[in-house]
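Researcher: We are triaging several targets before committing to wet-lab work. For this one, the compound of interest is zinc ion. I'm pasting the protein sequence and the ligand SMILES. What I need is the predicted three-dimensional arrangement of the protein with the ligand bound, expressed as structure tokens, so it can go straight into our comparison scripts without reformatting.
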Amino acid sequence: MPAELNPALAALAAGEPGPPPPVRIARPDLRPWVEGNVARGAWSFEGPAPGPHICILALTHGNEIAGAVLLERWLRQGLRPVAGRLSLVFANLDAFAHFDPADPVASRFVEQDFNRVWNPDLLDGPGRSSELRRARVLRPLIESADILLDLHSMLWPADPLLLSPDSPRCIELGLSLGEPPLVVADQGHESGRRVVDHLAALGRRAVLLEAGDHWEPETVARMERAASRLLHLHGLLPGAAEPMAPSRLARVTESITARSPSFSFIRPFRGGEVLAEPGTLIATDGSREIRTPHENCLLVMPTLRTAPGVTAVRLARFEEA
Ligand SMILES: [Zn+2]
């Protein structure tokens, strides 16, 4: 089904002034939680029985407040693991501090994307930025996790999905969650390594949840279902996880980067659309035509407002899970 853009997104896609996108969830009050008990904004609790260390990250992008709504509620309710260790982390607090519902797109990061700085070269290097400093603070905690779930949300209309580094252990983790029922394995971004890529390189299990529209209550609810299920599956919360229908697995086959300022999709595609015919025209980029490279091509998170050098869409092929 083609995407219906609300007036705010239609204006954003066209590069024209428009109203701010609607923000239907309240900005969480993190003041009681900023200090943390293991690092600033990071809370970690040991259960009374042995088990894995599961780390759940929110605010990797400062404007994606849905994950912070969930973790703030869990902290307020006093959620504690019955086994293993549970860490709840508000990642980019400095970007979140600038979150403004009147311009909610603006506060993704302060100086650079926190989710592109996880190369050991960068982390150990001389670079200085708000995000690198934050990553260095959180690095020991994050590297001590056996399993990590990174909570994200989306600006452009798209079906929810789990993004997995292309490693069997991470893919298996994504498929085990069953919510949302789609795992997309990818190679990450050329522009820098994500938290999940860093953990995958260390042999850990990590997936990134793109849970739905940034500022919708349903996105928080989906995050809670996925994160709770993760904790039940690994014994950190008591009781068995509900059985789920099997998930689908797709692997990214091509990443389309805009080269010209005139890059334009032929219509506002919705993430999750599957184009049956190979060679279907999806966008033009100056004189270049962008067509699907294979049949049943899954469109992964099209960015309807691009600029040269920006990933406009990733294309994926379904595989046997
Ligand atoms: Zn994000």
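Researcher: Any quick observations?
Model: The domain at 250-319 is CATH 2.40.50 (OB fold (Dihydrolipoamide Acetyltransferase, E2P)).
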